[in-house]
Amino acid sequence: MKASEINTIVIVGIGYVGLSLATLLATEKEVIAVDINKEKVDSVNLRISPIKDEYIEKYFKERELNLTATVDSNKAYDLADLVIISTPTNYDEEKNCFDTSVVEMVVKQIISINPEVPIVIKSTVPIGFTQNMVNKYNKNNILFSPEFLRESKALYDNLYPSRIIVGCKKESETIAYNFAVLLKKCAIKKDVEILCMEPTEAEAVKLFANTYLALRVSYFNELDTFAESKGLDTSKIIKGISLDPRIGDFYNNPSFGYGGYCLPKDSKQLLSNYKDIDEKIISAIVESNETRKDFIAKRVLDKAQDDANGEKCIIGIYRLTMKTNSDNFRHSAIQGVIERLKKQGVTLVVYEPTLENEDTIYDLKVIDNIVEFKKMCNIIIANRYEKQLLDVENKVYTRDIFGRD
């Protein structure tokens, strides 16, 4: 199949991955986005982005996109020349692996309706999953293509990709390459390297890449733990080591831990894939993140005890989101800190402007007025610092070293 022969692309799942891909590809091809959430479907058809992403919102307003959304998956699959699966694969803590049941269900449904259509899995899956699907259905045109997207910058990262990787069996190399060429054609950045490899190797790229990012976050967090414990200036130490070009002055701002939707689950899944293989580093990365949250919670409790002077201390949680300018707080690091503080019986309140008409979250009171929030709290903890905290800086506990500049 040539890229020119791909006329209608169906994308399953209207999340960060699916919607950014749908927007990107709709600049060149007819795209049908499928989701079970009718509210999201209606929103896309009205060109209102259901997720916070500056570039998606911009493209929805300014670009002519050949994009429709529907809840009728069967009809969409029947029309498809190519189907991309971008449904969630949450990590199952009991089974120690991703829950791939939705991806498997979608693959089965697609094949039952349109047996010959190529399928590209964009959902993050365990290493070996795509090969299992190839074997189960005896279909070599089931491919895996990892995504490398950031929250609130998903379309930007598709427009300016660091690389395009497609995992395929030898028999589907042409399909894989033409899919990669189509992604590259839709991108603004043109000097993008395309890599085709076995699907199992492509799956490994995804998990190892995200686990390395988790490692880097953990490294600078442990550096900060040491510096804070010893009364040292974290920023000076980080700047001093980051001037080594082999280390680099980037992705080095301490936090309450790595979080978000990808890094926690991907690092745990990679560790699970090591089941019969000796390792030390991968398990240490996962453990380090929990240790960091233990440390942060203890520092906050110590500060609360010092500030209380025998009176009731109210600790404010400033934002639940993982990153600045994001509306997503799935698995954010601060949630782990909240869990630890709740167990100690302290009084917590939350300020999170993305929560509309909600009085509580995690059994904590939500304060929707920032002035009231700042006034009532003795201590405010913030994973990421923002300018509106400047007037109460003496109350704020954060490890956002460079975000305060």
Write the layout of secondary structure elements.
Elements (H helix, E strand, L loop, with lengths): L7 E5 L3 H10 L4 E5 L3 H8 L8 H9 L4 E4 L2 H7 L2 E4 L5 E2 L4 E2 L2 H13 L5 E3 L7 H9 L4 E3 L9 H6 L4 E4 L5 H14 L7 E4 L1 H32 L3 H9 L20 H11 L7 H28 L5 E5 L14 H11 L3 E5 L8 E2 L2 E3 L3 H7 L2 E3 L14 E2 L8
Widest sheet, order of strands: 3-2-1-4-7-8
If helices are DSSP runs of H or I spanning 4 or more residues, what is the number of helices?
14
What general outline do the C-alpha atoms trace? globular
What can be said about the biggest beta sheet? 6 strands, parallel
Q: Kindly state the mean pLDDT as a whole number?
A: 94
**CATH H-tier superfamily of the largest domain:** NAD(P)-binding Rossmann-like Domain
**How far is it from the N-terminal to the C-terminal residue, by CA?**
52 Å
The second-level CATH architecture of the largest domain is 3-Layer(aba) Sandwich
CATH class of the largest domain: Alpha Beta
Tell me the structural class: alpha/beta
The helix fraction, in percent, is: 40-55%
**Any low-confidence stretches, pLDDT <50, length ≥5?**
none
Count of structural domains = 2
CATH topology of the largest domain: Rossmann fold
Per DSSP E runs of 2 or more residues, the count of β-strands stands at 16
Portion of residues in beta strands equals 5-15%
Radius of gyration (CA) equals: 23 Å
Q: Give helix and strand order, one letter per element, not per position.
A: EHEHHEHEEEHEHEHEHEHHHHEHEEEHEE
